[in-house]
Design goal:
Chain lengths: ~240, ~240
């Protein structure tokens, strides 16, 4: 049976099968080795995600997953006193929720699957002001980069406590000049380049954990291994 | 549990999670409603695919699929006396193999899933001569468009006999001027535009069978249905 890589997150995950999306890239990269299962929920924070976790993983049998990627925090980090306040989750609860999601995955999905946390991405505040959700007449972004950074730190500390790999995309993106417009289309969601860096960094993180195209078996004989003089001997 | 749409075919299917690929487009289109499961095998004809069909569908439980797409014939149609002759399958056997695959799906995967056949695409012979597989010093393409058309007809007749929907992509593509380079990157595989037309025609074919984003339920509350004043009431 082909193993699964499950991607669990918010809109950045929900949109990941769009053109150039990081889920498409991952599915293509692990072609014939892994099924990528997308569980992305636009607008969701960890509070709502945790409430629904049983339904999210419904139908996924124990042990099917080799890896589960948990990518939340961008909505939790909406500021409590700005236009998206109803999505806000305070940092202590964000950490508790992440830990509860991790425990759920370990108990119900797989005790051996690699669980990778991804921090929220950085915020381009200019992009957020120019692309508000609904009405935002305050002229203030509903998210700030420094707050997203605090959630990224919190995510990293949960990973460290649980001895899990973490992809700090908040820091990684900001290593590059012009990261604001290069990686983010509206100050929050990913451009093609943004998807590419998430994909590449995740592949690298999975490889560190022993999950790579080199280590995973291919499902059926590869075309190049089929003998043109006697093809059927590959299919006995 | 989220239903599955399974895509079973050759390299045109295996490559369908690449950028702009028809599987990515389908997964994104049916976002939060369906899991697209890719089972593409580069180089495979129906003879080899049938031999492996148990392994192909291993781990997919009875009744999980709402649709199975079967997209073979491009390799079967390799000419018996040209450079890819070892992939050739005569038309009568191609039809028998397709029928056996259909029977397998009905018995083992789902008696109610919609099974959609897709014919092989047309062949741009100029593209095949310019992009040979390995050595082809004959100056002759290993596939011709008229032979691919005969396999497309055979596929359509199997669909008709079994009362199944069929997407005749061989004919559909040739309705457009410059189809040879617009839809085919090397005379056989799909360009971005080629992927787009397969995606669009397949969505339309599924819709005719009652499978559409309008008819399929969303898995969890949509963000726009969550009350900002009392979000948690959506998650009871």
């Amino acid at each position: 049976m082909r193993p699964k890589v499950i991607l669990f997150g918010d809109s950045i995950t929900e949109m990941a099968f769009k053109n150039e999306g990081w889920s498409s890239c991952l599915a293509n990269h692990f072609c014939r080795k892994v099924d990528v299962v997308l569980r992305g929920y636009s607008g969701y924070n960890t509070r709502w995600a945790l409430k629904m976790v049983d339904k999210v993983f419904d139908g996924i049998k124990l042990g099917e997953a080799v890896a589960v990627v948990v990518f939340f925090g961008a909505n939790d980090a909406s500021l409590a006193d700005r236009s998206s306040s109803f999505q806000h989750v305070p940092i202590p609860e964000y950490k508790t929720n992440l830990k509860a999601i991790i425990s759920y995955i370990k108990e119900k999905i797989s005790s051996t699957a690699v669980i990778v946390l991804i921090t929220p991405p950085p915020i381009d505040e200019d992009g957020r002001i120019k692309n508000p959700y609904g009405e935002n007449t305050t002229g203030l972004p509903e998210r700030t980069n420094s707050d997203a950074g605090a959630y990224a730190e919190a995510c990293k500390s949960v990973a460290m406590e649980n001895n899990l790999p973490v992809l700090d995309i908040w820091s990684k993106m900001q290593e590059f000049p012009h990261w604001e417009k290069t990686f983010l289309s509206d100050g929050l969601h990913l451009t093609g380049e943004g998807n590419k860096i998430v994909f590449e960094e995740l592949v690298s993180k999975l490889m560190e954990q022993g999950i790579s195209i080199e280590t995973l078996p291919i499902d059926l004989p590869h075309f190049s291994d089929i003998d043109p003089l006697d093809p059927l001997k590959s299919f006995i």
